[in-house]
């Protein structure tokens, strides 16, 4: 007994909706991972998001206004991602500087003991 798979509609609208839904879902997951600072998940979701964007852009039958709105939303997610990662990187750099200062102070202390 063979399983029947539905053929996609000729107008491609179902494909558009699925691609846009995957893009929305991926962006939502990216926002969640960012909130948890789950950098491994963010890296994987970044690749998935790029794949979704490529898929959406390959389909030229999409409503341009809707496409612009979705891509602006993605852009906002990535702006937020950049802001958070820049802040995290700065915090790590400051922490490393404090560690180095403490290490140097310890060396000086041991010199004069």
From TrEMBL:
InterPro entries: FliT. Pfam families: FliT (PF05400). This is Flagellar protein FliT. It comes from Pseudomonas juntendi. Keywords: Bacterial flagellum biogenesis, Cell projection, Chaperone, Cilium, Cytoplasm, Flagellum. It is found in: Cytoplasm, Cytosol. It comes from the Bacteria. Its main location: cytoplasm.
């Amino acid at each position: 007994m063979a399983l029947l798979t539905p053929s996609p509609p000729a107008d491609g609208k179902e494909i558009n909706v699925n691609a846009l839904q995957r893009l929305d879902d991926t962006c939502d997951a990216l926002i969640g991972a960012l909130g948890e600072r789950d950098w491994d998940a963010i890296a994987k979701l970044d690749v998935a998001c790029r794949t979704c964007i490529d898929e959406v852009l390959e389909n030229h039958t999409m409503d341009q206004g809707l496409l612009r709105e979705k891509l602006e939303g993605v852009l906002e997610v990535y702006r937020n991602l950049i802001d958070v990662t820049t802040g995290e990187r700065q915090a790590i750099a400051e922490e490393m500087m404090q560690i180095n200062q403490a290490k140097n102070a310890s060396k000086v202390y041991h010199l004069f003991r």
